[in-house]
TrEMBL record:
Membrane topology designation: Multi-pass membrane protein
Protein name (database record): Palmitoyltransferase
GO biological process: protein targeting to membrane
Lineage of source species: Eukaryota, Sar, Alveolata, Ciliophora, Intramacronucleata
PANTHER family: PALMITOYLTRANSFERASE ZDHHC12, ZINC FINGER DHHC DOMAIN CONTAINING PROTEIN
Keywords from the named record: Acyltransferase, Lipoprotein, Membrane, Palmitate, Transferase, Transmembrane, Transmembrane helix
Domain notes: The DHHC domain is required for palmitoyltransferase activity.
Domain Palmitoyltransferase DHHC stretches: 175-242
GO molecular function, one term: protein-cysteine S-palmitoyltransferase activity
EC nos: 2.3.1.225
Alphabetized InterPro entries for the sequence: Palmitoyltrfase_DHHC, PFA4/ZDH16/20/ERF2-like
Keyword Acetylation tagged: no
Length: 322
């Protein structure tokens, strides 16, 4: 029942797969003399349908709620924002901007993936502080420069963030970002999907054909589904040689699927996602001189994809040493 509601609420239509199953299935029934292709095509057809539902239901990955810790001069405070808190809570304005208070309405989206947080300072405070006196700055990364304070007043609680010239390094590295939609820390290679309404680890793309995001936990099964779908259509073309209309339709679909599978095979070989490949100029952890920072070789990349698809925890990505 839950799976049925999921299909209905997200308006996922099974038209492409159901159409191919019905059309080719009826055609196979009409040409039973092709026994060899019939017994090959039948399992492929059911496997393709089963894989479609598996990819559709399988979770691409869930990022756990984490705490954001910022080092202080005397002690440390913890800022914990839970995922289920509505975003409207963060729209509270500070009462006194002259004391360094900020308004979260003035956060601006950054070039990475709409998750950059920018600190606002009044003009009189900017004249007195150095250029590095930002609590939240850069391309979505946290830093801990000066002793400036910021307060965020919400109906439920008041959070005070204070930093100073402490010796300890920042807790969050450059690849750590904060998602203002999910109100959660965003690990490297993750991106918020506006259709799924959540952050997807190792975000690849949102597939309109299936109606779900392709991410860390379902990318492998998605590639298997593409391969089986291609094999099914190739066998179906051999059976449907006498139906010109169906032959043309299946031929076009096969060409598109082979092209799509080829691109994803290249991405797997280089350990890069579709989003990273298309938006590499806007991603902070991808160097313009080295567009494949996670490449460990073809065999190791395939082995790593199988490993992260089978494990339950979110994989912690690390940049390769240059």
């Amino acid at each position: 029942m839950k799976a049925a509601c999921l299909f209905y609420n997200q308006k996922t239509y099974l038209g492409p797969t159901i159409f191919m199953v019905l059309q080719i299935g009826l055609h196979v029934w009409a040409y039973k003399e092709f026994l060899l292709y019939y017994y090959i095509f039948g399992p492929l057809m059911f496997a393709s349908c089963g894989l479609y539902f598996i990819v559709r239901i399988k979770d691409p990955g869930t990022i756990p709620i984490v705490k954001v810790e910022i080092p202080l001069e005397n002690n440390q405070i913890e800022v914990q924002i839970e995922n289920n808190v509505k975003r409207e809570v963060l729209n509270a304005q500070a009462n006194d901007e002259s004391n360094g208070q900020i308004s979260l309405d003035q956060f601006k989206d950054g070039p990475d993936n709409d998750n950059t947080i920018q600190k606002y300072y009044p003009e009189q405070q900017q004249q007195q502080q150095a250029d590095n006196q930002h609590i939240l700055s850069g391309r979505g990364m946290l830093s801990s420069p000066s002793s400036e304070q910021a307060k965020i007043n919400t109906p439920n609680k008041q959070t005070c963030i204070s930093t100073s010239n402490a010796v300890s390094p920042p807790i969050l590295a450059a690849e750590k970002r904060f998602c203002m939609q999910c109100l959660n820390e965003q690990p490297m290679r993750a991106k918020h999907c506006q259709y799924c309404k959540k952050c997807i680890p190792m975000f690849d793309h949102h597939c309109p054909w299936i109606g779900i995001c392709i991410g860390e936990k379902n990318k492998l099964i998605f590639l298997i589904y593409l391969f089986v779908q291609i094999a099914q259509l190739i066998v179906g073309i051999r059976i449907s040689v006498q139906n010109i209309g169906l032959l043309v339709v299946m031929g076009i679909i096969v060409i598109l699927l082979i092209t799509l599978f080829g691109f994803h095979a290249f991405y797997v070989a280089k350990n890069i996602t579709t989003w990273e490949y298309l938006s590499w100029k806007r991603i902070s952890y991808i160097d313009q001189n080295s567009r494949y920072p996670f490449d460990k070789g073809v065999i190791n990349n395939i082995r790593l994809l199988i490993q992260i698809s089978c494990q339950t925890q979110i994989y912690e990505w690390q940049l390769q040493s240059q």
